[in-house]
Amino acid sequence: MKRMIATLLICSLAAGNVLAVGRKKAVYIGGTSESLNRLGKESEGELDWSNEKTLVFKVKGQTVEVAYDRITALEYQNTRKFRTTAISASVASMAIPILFFPPVGLIALPFALKKKKRHFLTVAYRDVDDKPQALILELGKGIERAARVVISARSGKNVQVIIE
Question: Exposed, middle or buried: residue 66 (CB in 10 Å: 0-12, 13-18, 19+)?
Fold first, then answer.
């Protein structure tokens, strides 16, 4: 009985973290890159700023390289929203505990309703043909601060912070 309660509680808590961005990853949200747009929105990849000349985003075999001296603007925004898609999964997984063990279900309910903080970075730049381009990324919480500082320092552009 205790094992079943523990399993249901763990499942309800884990359901909220299924859609999270990896701590040290970045997710392509949108932009003007044709190769990344073909992959589809919300493709998770790696953001590499170790090269002093170019910012590199790698996702599913595709690579976008942005020269720091071609960056025209940087914009950062963080949002706090309820995990709406995770709430339905969490509440559904808590149906049994709530019906048969109300105290356990009520204890787990606040975890299902917690807010998720998301970090977005928009990089506006000019490509080799001097056309304006944009790259919109959601950053994992393990890299968001370092990415902003390094990209800003290497590009010489200040990051415009948008507070929601």
Answer: buried
Instruction: Count other Cβ atoms within 10 Å, centred on residue 28.
Output: 25
Per residue in 34-65, pLDDT tens?
877 787 777 899 999 999 999 999 988 888 99
Predicted TM-score (pTM) of the model is 0.69
CATH number for the domain harbouring residue 44? 2.30.29.30
- Write out the residue range of the structural domain in which residue 60 sits: 2-163
Number of domains comprising the chain: 1
**47 Ramachandran zone, left/alpha/beta (phi>0; psi -120 to 50):** beta
| Cα(28)–Cα(43) distance, integer angstroms | 5
Residue in the structure block whose two tokens are 């909220």: 16
